[in-house]
Design brief:
81 residues; mainly alpha; single chain; 0% strand; flat
């Protein structure tokens, strides 16, 4: 049992928020148009600021481009990646 439940408190679940780029080119911070990068960083910063001010923020970190992702499907008898 979690310590929040044991202490008589309830806690909100934790969620992972990703901010993907919808592009075949998979832009990175280094290759994005500076104005687009600034807008994306400002929007992401606003979300992080709001989460932080409410005590809901846990962690921030970068992800690799979607083409480097590995999908794991455990619906069959063997693990496929």
């Amino acid at each position: 049992m979690s310590s929040c439940v044991e202490a008589g408190r309830t806690s909100m679940g934790q969620y992972l928020l990703t901010v993907p780029h919808d592009s075949n080119e998979e832009p990175t911070m280094e290759t994005m148009d500076p104005a687009e990068l600034e807008a994306a960083m400002a929007a992401t910063g606003a979300i992080i600021e709001e989460l932080t001010s409410t005590g809901a923020f846990v962690f921030a970190g970068g992800l690799m481009p979607p083409s480097s992702a590995i999908t794991v499907d455990n619906t069959g008898e063997s693990l496929q990646g």
